[in-house]
């Protein structure tokens, strides 16, 4: 693989993605989201193009060398283990060697306590090399988050939130390579369409269980459906219809795995009044029927 550095243009032209994996940034039912970096990067040819998350901070723990990244003005290629904190709103891009080992924990700002949220609501990245006390503590916490994220039980959300907030605090241990420069340092100029894209995500989160069309959402934002489609593709990297569907499927999978509700009831909770249509939509999107997916998810 080439050693070419990932880059991006001025912050104003860097797309603001509200999705990472299957997480609606900033307003998810889970207080954090965990994903293995290998799983995400492999599907994108080991390259994550420049983007930013307006309402989402992320912690990356790389256990292997061969990761080239840019976060804000920080450019780095790892020669060993390293931990990186990317505050909300900061443009970032990655290029990975195949077989990279690591984890990413995504943190919606809305899930964090105000004093913790202020630390990651903007500013510069934090970087800790492997072997430092801060890195060792971070790696242990992220490993606990990974295990807990796959389970479900009493206190899960509170534990995930506490571990995530503790991980953020660990970035203040020792001397970070790059410190936080203040909540507005890297937020960048937000265009009107970026604000509308962010508001659309908020509206979807509030109303995905209702039978609203793209045209209905456009009317709520006082723009045309064509304009909504254009700004979503540009700033979110996805059409509004696909985003609505993905959010409904995310909730459907959560309910299938963690509740005893029947398929028809779950479809209704996800905005599908017709149970048969929900089954067809789920099967088309996920590749398996709701019942089969539930059986496989529960092992």
TrEMBL record:
It holds the Pfam family HTH_18. PANTHER family: HTH-TYPE TRANSCRIPTIONAL ACTIVATOR RHAS-RELATED (PTHR46796). InterPro entries: AraC_XylS_family_regulators, Cupin_HpaA-like_N, Homeodomain-like_sf, HTH-like, HTH_AraC, HTH_AraC-typ_CS. Gene3D superfamilies: Homeodomain-like. The gene is araC_2. This is Arabinose operon regulatory protein. SMART domains: HTH_ARAC. Keywords: Activator, DNA-binding, Transcription, Transcription regulation. It comes from the Bacteria. PROSITE patterns: HTH_ARAC_FAMILY_1, HTH_ARAC_FAMILY_2.
């Amino acid at each position: 693989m080439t050693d070419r550095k990932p880059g991006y243009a001025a912050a104003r032209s860097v797309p603001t993605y509200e999705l990472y994996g299957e997480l609606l940034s900033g307003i998810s039912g889970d207080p954090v989201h965990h994903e293995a970096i290998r799983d995400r990067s492999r599907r994108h040819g080991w390259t994550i193009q420049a983007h930013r998350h307006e309402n989402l901070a992320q912690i990356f723990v790389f256990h292997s060398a061969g990761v080239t990244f840019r976060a804000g003005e920080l450019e780095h290629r790892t020669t060993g283990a390293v931990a990186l904190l990317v505050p909300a709103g900061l443009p970032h891009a990655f290029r990975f060697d195949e077989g990279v080992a690591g984890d990413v924990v995504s943190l919606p700002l809305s899930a964090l306590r105000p004093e913790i949220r202020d630390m990651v609501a903007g500013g510069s990245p934090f970087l800790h090399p492997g072997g430092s006390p801060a890195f060792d503590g971070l790696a242990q916490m992220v490993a606990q988050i990974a295990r807990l994220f796959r389970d479900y039980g009493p206190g899960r959300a509170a534990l995930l939130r506490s571990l995530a907030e503790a991980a953020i605090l660990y970035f203040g241990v020792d001397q970070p390579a790059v410190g936080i420069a203040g909540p507005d340092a890297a937020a960048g100029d937000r265009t009107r369409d970026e604000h509308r894209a962010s508001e659309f995500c908020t509206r979807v989160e509030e109303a995905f269980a209702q039978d609203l069309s793209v045209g209905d959402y456009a009317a709520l934002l006082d723009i045309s459906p064509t304009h909504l489609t254009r700004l979503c593709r540009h700033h979110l990297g996805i059409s509004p219809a696909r985003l609505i569907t993905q959010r409904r499927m995310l909730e459907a999978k959560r309910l299938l795995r963690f509740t005893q509700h029947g398929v028809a009831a779950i479809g209704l909770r996800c905005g599908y009044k017709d149970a048969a249509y929900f089954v067809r939509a789920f099967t088309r999107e996920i590749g398996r029927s709701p019942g089969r997916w539930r059986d496989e998810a529960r092992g």
